[in-house]
Amino acid sequence: MRIKTLSLLLILMTASFNASTQIYKSIDKHGNAVFTDKPSTTRPSEPVTLEPITSLPAPANTPSPGFSAPEPAEQQDKPGYSVFSISSPANDSTVRDNGNFTITVSVQPNLARGHRVRFFINGQAVAGPQRALSHKVENINRGTHQIRVEVVSHSGKVIRTAENTVHVQRAIFRPPAP
Predict the structure, then answer these.
(1) Residues 43, 120: one domain?
(2) Do residue 40 and residue 91 come from a single domain?
(3) Same domain membership, residue 96 and residue 145
(4) Could you give the number of structural domains in the chain?
(5) What is the pLDDT of residues 35-74, one digit of tens each?
(6) To bridge 67 with a disulfide, which of 63, 75, 87, 170 should be the other Cys (CB 3.0-4.6 Å)?
(7) What is the DSSP pairing of strand 93-95 with strand 158-168?
(8) What CATH number has the domain bearing residue 94?
């Protein structure tokens, strides 16, 4: 009941920004406070005067002792990777291990602080963002698949991408006819 009254009061307070709006308070037959924009004709009501809203400035953004601030975004978003490629499985290669293989990425220099790697197969995310440069996939259906790997910044911006095509062959077991 109290939450309902407080909610009503907050709604009425936001409506009170209009200078011509007056708020009235009355008590209903159950003893609950009722706030309206018109005085009650059946119960005594009194005008409500709201205090002006107090606004405080935002606190200064000072790091706590022992806290290291992240690198500036410009520095994180422009790492200048000389190498970013999918080293395994090789492009246009065939995988024969029942659809199980590991996607491995080569990066030079190492991933910058705040950067992560995401792995996709046929446009669907299968792992990441993560710091690890490899991801094991299992039970991939037979056929041709597109692998894409992305380096993303701490804010989610895509920095670099690499794509490979892989062909998955799976053994088919057909029992002898009876």
Answers:
(1) no
(2) no
(3) yes
(4) 2
(5) 888 888 888 888 888 778 777 777 766 655 555 555 444 4
(6) 63
(7) parallel
(8) 2.60.40.10
Q: What is the mean pLDDT of residues 86-105?
A: 91
Q: What's the domain range around 161?
A: 80-168
Average pLDDT estimate for 154-164: 91
Give the list of residues 6+ apart from residue 147 with CB closer than 8 angstroms, or none.
86, 89, 103, 119, 120, 121, 163, 164, 165, 166
The answer, as to whether pTM is greater than 0.85, is: no
Mark whether 87 and 42 lie in a shared domain. Answer: no
Residue 85 has pLDDT above 90, yes or no: yes
Q: Look at residues 149, 162, 159, 67 and name the one whose alpha carbon lies nearest to residue 114.
A: 159
153 found inside a domain:
yes
